[in-house]
Amino acid sequence: MVAALSRGPGEILGRERIPTRTPEETIARLLSCFARASEEFGSPEALVVGTFGPADLDPASPTYGLITATPKPHWSQTDLLGPLQKALGVPAVFETDVAASLYGEVTWGAAQGMKHAAYLTVGTGIGGALLIDGGILHGIGHPEMGHMRVSRHAKDDFKGSCPFHQDCLEGLAAGTSMSQRWGIPAEELPVDHPAWEIEAFYLAQACLNLLMIAPPEVIILGGGVMHQRQLFPLVRAELLRLVDGYLAYEQLRGDLVNFIVPPALGDDAGVLGCVALGQRLLAGRF
Amino acid sequence: MVAALSRGPGEILGRERIPTRTPEETIARLLSCFARASEEFGSPEALVVGTFGPADLDPASPTYGLITATPKPHWSQTDLLGPLQKALGVPAVFETDVAASLYGEVTWGAAQGMKHAAYLTVGTGIGGALLIDGGILHGIGHPEMGHMRVSRHAKDDFKGSCPFHQDCLEGLAAGTSMSQRWGIPAEELPVDHPAWEIEAFYLAQACLNLLMIAPPEVIILGGGVMHQRQLFPLVRAELLRLVDGYLAYEQLRGDLVNFIVPPALGDDAGVLGCVALGQRLLAGRF
Hints:
Two copies of one chain form a homodimer. Chain A has helices at 23-41, 81-88, 97-108, 169-173, 175-182, 194-213, 231-243, 269-282, and strands spanning 2-6, 12-17, 47-51, 66-67, 78-79, 92-96, 117-122, 126-132, 135-136, 219-222, 260-261. In chain A, the strands form four sheets. Chain A has a five-stranded mixed sheet with strand order 9-8-7-10-11, sandwiched between helices. A two-stranded antiparallel ribbon of chain A has the order 1-2. In chain A, strands 3-6 form a two-stranded parallel ribbon. In chain A, helix 1 (23-41) runs parallel beside helix 2 and helix 3 (97-108) crosses helix 8 (269-282). Chain A starts with a strand and ends with a helix. In chain A, 35% of the residues lie in helices and 16% in strands. The first copy, chain A, contains eight helices and eleven strands. Chain A folds into two domains: 2-99 and 267-282, Nucleotidyltransferase, domain 5 (2-Layer Sandwich), CATH 3.30.420.40; 110-262, 2-Layer Sandwich (Nucleotidyltransferase, domain 5). The interface between A and B is large, with 47 and 47 residues.
């Protein structure tokens, strides 16, 4: 986890990376970061939490602010927002980490000024967020895009790594899946290894399903696996092949270099997105 | 196509079913229906078109009101809204047929009062619409849910019937696909034919992908294929199996009889949805 204090996008006053251990230990360390920062810079006016999921984001729910059922040991049903907000005593936003990253990219990055955008993060797991008409899409909870279903690559007989669904998107295409399938971590696979073509096949299907369900102006692909830049042209080419001229959107013309993009804010998208959400909260736009 | 004149949900003053032939012939017949209805009941105050897609729904676009690239002969790039609106001279709403059906169900049917709902129509093709925060989701166009990708049933080697994508959802699960796969129309297959289990497997994946991308309070399954009521318990059971306890939504507790539902307005959902959209337009809520 990253604790950060900011006065704006160019003014991150301090940040600290904290390993995610038990809830008690981790929350205590977050609180001590905030206490030290407050002493040095003054009390913050807003708190924004961009959390791993699944989490309850509905302020009207009795379990608002909690991590719900997660395979992460000790974290199921943990109140993450409560103790932080109690200690700081300021208005708060509780969002998913990937929605925060998306909001950062919409405010200062690759989706700047857009009304409709998608963000998929491909790391040890796969998460996703959608901006529709300028607002973060929640529906009755929040997207869990890693667990959508896609069709299998003809040359792939890996059973899948998702503990819940085996061969859902995450089970076939997350970093964990790649390292289980090939026996070495994804980042150690050569650039011309067949793994990348199979990976692109799955990620292109995820992009296609987003296009067919909630068509965005741009799809940002972030997370550790996407540090492998050779994936971008492969995903773009596969997506064009899958769409096969069916959709007339101008965003789909050409080679998709402006449609399937890396995060412009890189791995800072999450922290900067929380800053942007805090500014929006303080501007009264929630 | 159905032309209807209404004063409200209980007051459909008249309706007429018109076969979809060439644009010239079909639009001329729609216009003559409206002319006769206006003579008898007075001029209408609003026009609502719930059209097959793909169509340009963006009022700011130079091709607003047109059917865009469709495999339907003669209809590509046809201006459908223009001639109707010119003849009637009233404010108009241009929507997809499935979004109109969804809006009908939200106003008077199975999703009454809900903020987030989905509608999938499974007929000769497959279409879909989403209501998010009370508004119809467009993104940069409109959903084309029939063309999402899903994973194949282990016992299904049918190549798929979609002229664009072969084995996308529509290519594997639309009525056209069923009749090509089994050699007889879907409605002639016995209730206990293995076809229904395979069909339910694909439709449950479509529902799952909606849940993982834009989670709704309810998913309404309409269209000709869904007249086979034995499909509903099969889709519900398969969806529960696919979710496998991963999501904590209260909507997913029990046997899903209130989550995967038929349209309460039946095949009237489209016409009534257009009426509801017209009332919303006249109330100034667009």
